[in-house]
Write a structure and sequence with these properties.
Blueprint: H1 2-34, H2 41-63, H3 73-92, H4 94-115, H5 118-133, E1 177-179, E2 182-184, H6 201-234, E3 238-245, E4 256-261, H7 272-284, E5 289-293, H8 301-308, E6 320-323, H9 336-344, E7 347-349, E8 353-359, E9 362-368, H10 383-387, E10 397-400, H11 407-410, E11 417-420, E12 444-448, E13 451-455, E14 473-480
Parallel strand pairs: 3-14, 4-5, 5-6, 6-7, 9-10, 10-11, 11-13
Antiparallel strand pairs: 1-2, 4-14, 8-9, 12-13
């Protein structure tokens, strides 16, 4: 049953991604291709290129999890990032683009009005009024034998017959001319004379200039943002020093130091150097405890085991500990093989259990719970097992839990501090504005029902190798009994 639920969840996720990607690419086609090109070969070629990229995005998300699909990771995830920021920049440019087109239309209409002399317009109105009010006499029969004479001048006293729809009126300068029984007024749809209609080549050129400028601006903004994000994501994590006051903490434990790291995401886009650099930076902090709070890997031990081997060099006074994240449950063989692999590397998994950290004659409870992602397979979090039983409630407790939302249950057990990851701090702005819909804390120190929660932004990345507004992080967290 759990396996079936997991498959349903994956199918639902893939369906949602496909729908979102399709809608975004339709919007990109409308703004980047249809609005900037004329019908023809160029438009067709660009359309097929965009269709291919639209297929590449969801295929990459699925295939990159398999060894055969690793070659898609770089081009696929790079395009996903570019696609996302093209969408963001184009949406932001919708208002300026609309304003520019509106101003252009008003200028064209004003220029059109200037082409018709005011006196001519007034005479047209005066002539139209009596003609409209005068009844139209019945048509008079004309003898076939009677010759049609040339037009005769009309005396001033002679009434002017009502205009017939099939006969053009008298010609006057600027008033238009009769062509085949149709009066043509200059500027009213006459594209030959530069009227401001949508068929006017000059007007179309001005509109194309505006839409192409918006497209170029969006493209430059997207590529620049993604380039900056790639450099940030692949660079060194930021060391974030954090001081947390736990009122119930034994004073002798003040100054205990935790190196907190999450979301390393060893996978097809990372090499051995990724883990080696993180280990080197953690060791330079000389921590008392190392806490790895989930999402270590995106694959099996057979695929990624060599990338995790640098973890055996982690150094700390009281050991390194690990709890599962949701991505450990996405691997083909599940998280258990990684639990065993990490034990062999000297990192102790805390699967719904706790240990005692004895320091300076005092004791701190360090507990860990599995991620919510394990519920479908029957390996979810068990707070009672980790925090209940014969636990001494007078001791301060630090809990390792991958998702910040797990603090809702942790608070019921009197946990003083929860260390989490999962959010990546949003990873790519403006996702940081969406994360609060699911998690109570996006990054940094917060509080949930009286339990303090520190959320690290993670030291790696998931999906696109891009971080914008949320640089990778390794946290050096000190706990203290009171403020200095």
């Amino acid at each position: 049953m759990g396996e079936l639920e997991g498959r349903v969840t994956i199918v639902g996720f893939v369906s949602l991604v496909v729908c979102a990607v399709t809608l975004v690419h339709c919007y990109l086609w409308h703004r980047l291709i249809r609005s900037t090109t004329r019908p023809g070969r160029t438009r067709r070629v660009l359309t097929w290129v965009l269709v291919a990229l639209a297929v590449l995005a969801p295929v990459t998300l699925v295939a990159s999890r398999s060894e055969w699909g690793h070659f898609l990771a770089w081009p696929g995830f790079f395009w996903i990032a570019v696609m996302f920021y093209l969408f963001v920049f184009l949406v932001l440019l919708e208002i300026p683009r609309a304003v520019a087109l509106t101003i252009l239309r008003l200028v064209e209409e004003r220029a059109e009005r200037r082409r018709v002399p005011p006196g001519v317009a007034a005479r047209r109105v005066e002539r139209a009024a009596p003609i409209a009010a005068q009844p139209v006499p019945a048509a008079q029969p004309v003898s076939a034998a009677q010759p049609v004479s040339a037009a005769q001048p009309v005396s001033a006293a002679q009434p002017v017959p009502a205009a017939r729809p099939d006969v053009a009126g008298p010609s006057e300068p600027g008033a238009g001319s009769a062509v085949g029984g149709v009066i043509v007024v200059p500027g009213a749809g006459d594209t030959r004379r530069g009227g401001g209609t949508s068929n006017d080549p000059a007007a179309m050129s001005r509109r194309l200039f505006i839409t192409r400028t918006a497209a170029v601006a969006a493209g430059a903004g997207a590529l620049g943002t993604v380039g900056f994000g790639v450099r940030t994501a692949l660079g060194d994590p930021v060391i974030e020093p954090v001081r947390v006051v736990l009122p119930r903490l034994d004073p002798r434990l003040s100054g205990l130091r935790f190196a907190v790291v999450s979301d390393i995401h060893l996978g097809p886009l990372t090499g051995t150097e990724h883990a080696r650099r993180i280990v080197r930076m953690i060791n330079s902090l000389r921590p008392d405890v190392v806490a790895v709070v989930g999402d270590l890997v995106d694959g099996t031990v057979a695929e990624l085991g060599p990338l995790a081997r640098p973890l055996k060099d982690l150094e700390s006074r009281y050991g390194a500990y690990f709890v599962t994240g949701n991505h450990e449950y996405y691997t083909a063989n599940g998280p258990q093989e990684w639990m065993e692999e990490l034990r062999g590397l000297g990192v102790r998994p805390l699967g719904n259990e706790r240990v005692e950290i004895a320091h300076a004659g005092a004791v701190l409870d360090l507990a860990g719970v599995n991620d919510i992602g394990g519920v479908a397979s029957g390996d979810g979090p068990d707070f009672e097992r980790a925090l209940g039983g014969d636990r001494d409630r007078s001791r301060s407790t630090v809990l390792l839990a991958h998702q910040p939302v797990q603090a809702v249950q942790a608070a019921r057990y009197g946990v003083d501090l929860q260390l989490s990851g999962h959010t990546h701090g949003g990873q790519m702005v403006p996702f940081n504005l969406v994360v609060p819909m699911q998690q109570p804390v996006v990054s940094g120190l917060g509080e949930v029902d009286g339990t303090q929660v520190y959320v690290t932004r993670g030291a790696g990345f998931w999906g696109p190798p891009v971080r914008v507004g949320a640089p990778p992080e390794i946290t050096l967290l000190e706990v203290h009994h009171e403020r200095p």
